[in-house]
Amino acid sequence: MMILYLAWVAFAAYLNAGIACFHFLFGYVHPFYDGSSRLNHFLHNAFLQKSPGLPAALSLSHALLVKRQQYYRVFEKCENPINFSDLTVFAVFFLQTLEEGLDQNICNLPTRIEYSDQLPGES
Fold it and tell me: What whole-number percentage of the chain has pLDDT above 90?
């Protein structure tokens, strides 16, 4: 069972790195990558819903919004010809931002549970 779990974790990490690279490449060829990236966010959210699930997709969208300026700087670093198209910096930023977004959601859970308990309706 442990081997299956480790295989799943390795596959999920590989898949998430692939989503990060796809996000960069789609944003690179999309003519409005520095302004309107709604389609790109929709696509990575669709992929993330298949891998870690909806909470990851929602966490990443909010975290990228919070770190928008850093996102653009990392994007520019990867576009720089000196970088030789190495997407490692972007993939690391993307995955760290995903992790930070999930951590923030976990920290907010008690508040959200308390709020939902106060809503009218069935108990």
Answer: 7
